[in-house]
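FAQ: What does a multi-protein file look like?

Like this. Sequence, then tokens, then the next protein.
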Amino acid sequence: MAEPGSTSDVYNSGGLHTVREDEEDMATPDVNDAGMKIEMAREVYKAYGDFEEVPTKLEIFTWYLYSMCSYFIQAVLIPIVFPLFISEIRSHGNIPNESFKNSRGLTCYLREMDLYHGLTNSTIHVNGSAFSPFEWTSISWGVGLIIAFPILGFIAKHLDHGQNQRLIAITATAIGAVFCLPSGVFKTKWIFPLYIAAIVAAYTVCTAFHTRHLGLMIRGFTGHPLRKSQFPHRRGVASWLSLHATSAGCLGAAIIATFTYHMLYPSEKFIGLWIVSIFSGLKWLVGIFHVFLANRPAAITSLSFISSGTPHVLSVFKYPHAIGSLFGVFLASFSTMCIFAGAVLHAVGELCLTPNHLLHLWLLYFLAPLLTLPLLQPLQKFLKADAVKMQLLGLLLSVTTAGFGFYYQLKNWSLGHIMFFAALQSTAAGLLHAFGRILVLDCSPCGKEGAFSVWYSWMRESGTCLGFAVATAIPGMIGKSLGTAFVVGVVAILVLIFGNISSFGAAKAAGHLSEESVRGSPVHGLDSTEMKKPIQLETP
């Protein structure tokens, strides 16, 4: 017979201990349960391609840095530095710095005129045809775009559904930067098309990567999908990011333009311009830090899944808003470059602008957006203007500049008028660049930012190339350059107005907006109230 004490001991040592543990487990809630569900939801949303992490300050800074280290390529390096480079291949003796009066009665100097004629005269002979350094650059630019076209078509699906976005951006940046370094090794005109084409193709790929990253950062700040009442938050975030990146890019262009000017007047211009090209390549490489520090891989999707049916890169043609916005980007790029190239040639060749004033013109053109673009964002918020309306503002400013220049083409423009319209046109170019990509990204559904970005990059670069080719093919005929830019700008306005294009309509067609406040969570048991509010940015 067991003693009562022994039974009590067994109970206390075994059963009671178990009961107390169960009671403690029931009394203590699982505080990690909600957090675990949220993390599970993040992973599933990421897999579906809808969820993006909020960008860090470092990621935003490096994204701006890449803009500062790459924007100058299509603004200064290709249209200014390489034509000067090619023009220095010709032989010319020591030209005295004597002055003379031109047909307009203005004082010109032989050295500046020799530089101008070296750029515009047909000194390159190929199979019975003659080309100027400007035309040689335009041809090389076009070849680079032809090379880039199939490359962009191939990488589009890898940007959206692959895991090698970093490798694509690093490879393109490295190739472009490397081709900047040996540009002065061989003093022959035949090697420059290779350099220019490679740089153009690499830059076009890099622009597609950079633009896609903007779309992902916008989604990270705002969430997806949005209620209609929350669309202004997306508009504010997108404009804030794009405007500041454009300002940073203009600062980088001003640095290279200033360096080019100071390297243009030593006794050995060719070596000086080679130094500019080397510095440009090294500067481009600095921007690669953005690629290393900001990693936003695509949603986990099988590439074989998207290979069936319509090619991924052609999915843009399913969205009418996207087609209209891309056409607007092409026309705007054509108009802005045509005005810039034609006006600079006219100022140097016909108005005999002195070297110091030319430097001031370049600095004003590239630095004015640093002041004007950030000031225009409060105006945009006050007017509740979307990307289309801001593009229309930029086109109106551009058309105004071209119209005044065309009307007064026979007059001798004063320095004050030149500087005023340079600031006006630079603001227009900045607006068109900043809001052109925003509109394209508004048209892009989740998971297709890469496909839309490659089209944006190629269309923008094609318009810039064609505008440069038209303006430089007819030097001394400012009326035709500005007249063409004016007509193209008006056509772009008509496309945006009568094409029934709007940021809201584009975002709705792309699936960025929803009638409901929240979409059902793919994770079983997760309360929708835990993730229903998108992250909002207070800064813009």
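And here is the next protein:
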Amino acid sequence: MIPERQSSANLSNNTPLLGGTPNQSVDNNLGNAASRDGLDEKQPSKGRKRWLILAIVLGIATIVFLAVFLPVYFVVIRKSPTAESGSSTSGGSSDASGTTADAPAPSGTAVPTTGGDGSIITLENGTTFTYRNSFSGFWVHNPEEPFNNNARPNEWTPPLNTSWRWGVDRIYGVNLGGWLVLEPFISPEIFQRYPGVRDEFSLSQAMVADTANGGLRQIEEHYQTFITEVDIAEIAAAGLNFLRVPIGFWAIETWDGEPYLAKTSWTYFLRAVEWARKYGLRILLDLHAVPGSQNGLNHSGKLGTTNFLAGNMGIANAERTLDNLRVFTQFISQPQYRDVVVAIGLVNEPMASQIGLDPLHSFNLRAYDIIRSVTGYGEGNGPYIAVQDGLQSLGRWDGILPGGDRVIMDGHAYFAFGDVNPSPMVALAEDGLPGGTWPAQACRVWGAEFNNSRSNIGPTVSGEFSGAPNDCGLFIRAVNVESFHPQCAEYNNWENYNSTMKAGLQSWIMASFDAFGDFFFWTWKIGPSQAGRVEAPLWSYKLGLDNGWIPRDPRDSVGKCAAVGVSTPVQGTFDAFRTGAVPSPTVSAAYSARYPWPPTSIPSADVPISLLPTFTNTAAAVTLPVPTYTSAPASATAGLDGWFNNDDRTGGIVTVAGCPYPNFYTATFATAPTAACTGS
């Protein structure tokens, strides 16, 4: 997976540095010329011998110098962030794409292990591109030191080997949405291949039946091509510093009746981790789709009903989810990964309006206890835990997990799905710039909400928002569900935005950045439809960056709310237990008693909690596989086995033998139970 760098031994032993053939001995050649036994030739004088000896010594010294200096130059001297490979440093542009060469890099040359703006990066397939980063960021990648955390994406973000300071360091992040959990509006072309599919569940079913076109292998082809190293380099070069990476439960395993491509996306997540490490980006791993569906929306894997903490399989599906979180946490808490994957999101957008807050509080507390039993407490011991707002206002979660170690709140904010608002984007805002009413609206609504959450709960991020003020765009609502917004023709025609429209969009997006303080834009990129164009333009950070409606430097957003007359200074002081400064924090006993596991009730169940199906922990625990580092010494990967805490000997989740179970997603009893099933 990681390309090997030619060793200095190969460079010195097999490369003709001074002409001639490899391994040809200068001493032997000269010696043979000076002693021709049996030939009647005049011998050189003593003076000539001295010059000859001197020439031999100089030749040997030159060979030794080049054999030693060249490897040292590329491996050590080039490690300086200011020493860049391939070309001289150039400034002014933060475009990371550069030019990707069709031809592979020349063989037999040492590969640099670090570089900054203007450096040449060689990809796994041997092609190269020029890294453009005008923010003093630099990459680090040495196959012999695969866990080197010295990289940083820009001058205002601490390197990976330095602690993140909540309230001081700002998250400027993007999601890698639609990559490892497919969504119709993000990757429309792949859904358009199969008319009628509405989600990854039905897409997978259609692909399984379509062996002629590759079956489920098409999903892996999407993993391979949708997000690449060049994307991660561009993200770092755009002044960003964090990734939120959605993943589905099928990265770990699938059970009967679940058609998803199993045990494959994890490999690609690990690629993202290595690329993030290379360019100095941190990651929030987001469990985006859980067994049974947490909200019945297409991004949960299956469009339909909510069967997580709701319905007859609500507790059983939640138990699987808890085990998934344990497995992910065991892996990312390993020392080799915890400085890159620094946070884990429990469940993306559980439908709190259907589930209710009390069952979610019980689940979140149970997940917290399981995760911290793996990691321990305090700074550096495993990931921060991100709790999602359940599509509710952040204020409804005040008081969550009181005393909880390193808990952050994740709010998702969209005007796109509210009431129709035709306010023009090209009108002048309070600061005299285009944007109309939108910038001040973002600052008033979101700025106050997120600052209150910081004061009442702790570190708070916007895990999702977009540049769209409406629901215009292909498949935004759902497959074959169209928007009724009267301005869709204008907003969808991004190729013809004029400078005023772009300035207005940028003004309201910058106001959103400033209002949130710490954010992850949804999403980095949108793929083209079968028509060959992006049809949901305001959801693509990359498209906006390339075309001028997203700022080149996200820091330019700071102070935007004040400029439009809304004062929302970001709250930056948090309780010590929220930032890992308390070695043995405890969640309030009263809170724990109020929210037991399992919860006392869940909605839409046909029988009481005590009669609902559950699983048992008697299977072998699943351990996620680790990558192979072919160039690293054994000492670098010692102890790397995917399982951080060996004291955790709890088994994996499995059905109780002899007990009937409804379908995970429809969950209708053939016969309603009248007693708890304990197995055969």
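Q: Is there any per-entry metadata?
A: Some entries carry free-text notes. For the entry above: Confidence is low (pLDDT under 50) at residues 1-53, 63-103.
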